[in-house]
Amino acid sequence: MRRRWRRPRALTAAALTGAALLLTGCAQSVDPIERLGEKAAQRVRQHAPARDLAYRHWGLRAPLAPAPNPPARPLARPLAPGTAGPPLPPVVDRVATRDKVVFLTYDDGAEKDPHFVDLVRDLRLPVSMFLTDSVVGPGYGHFARLRSVGAGVQNHTLDHPAMAGLPYAGQRAEICGQQEKLRARFGIRPRLFRPPYGMYDTTTLRAAADCGVSAVVLWRVSSTTGALTYARGDHHLRPGDIIQVGPDESTGPTLKERTLRLLRRVQAEGLTVGRLEDYL
Predict the structure, then answer these.
(1) Domains (range + CATH), the chain
(2) I need a surface site. Which of 140, 161, 207, 233 has the fewest CB within 10 A?
(3) pLDDT digits over 177-217, tens only?
(4) CB atoms within 10 A of CB 172
């Protein structure tokens, strides 16, 4: 007896979305959804959540690959016998991880590009903002919006001085003062601190520890108009790199555009963006 031919079942929305996401990490010249064929691509667009297709709106060739599950945060180091005060925080310019992630950090708070807020929201982009009170000025509302869409807010001093060489009282006032400002504005006391210009000394570390800071964050890679500069080591992106996205250029591309150029570079090297606060 011959078997009757059955029409293949229609793909479910979950299967269609999964097919698109399997190609997430590929930096290819052809859009990964388009590779499914015109009819299948139309069905994916109909069923996939809007957030999964936001990358097209922002001009990326593929969605950002999801970051791996964050590692368990290490327990606080115990004090050595006879030691007064908390232990000095580590100074990091990259994270020791095999996860294929890099970390995007932004300093000062001078730039308040509203389209950057949209970018962070649409792509669920985990970024860390190191804020200076005197630079942010009356613009804390902008960073409240960024924080509401997932950005992390961290400490970059009250007035942006070069910290190395300043007396303990002055350094402590700069760090603890901004801790209090951010607590009053957002109800948080940041764990991460970035010294202005990347300059610090042992007094900075002691003051940071006394203000509740668990890590002093520098950077191995910096990005201005899209070009990358490396402070040390290999001249290519590596897993765990902390990237400082440079300050505004009055005649250059916007913060949104600089970030998009950087994201294309990150994807081209087979990496994605992780949340720095999950790793430190």
Answers:
(1) 13-57 (no CATH), 91-279 (3.20.20.370)
(2) 233
(3) 999 999 999 999 999 999 999 999 999 999 999 999 999 99
(4) 18
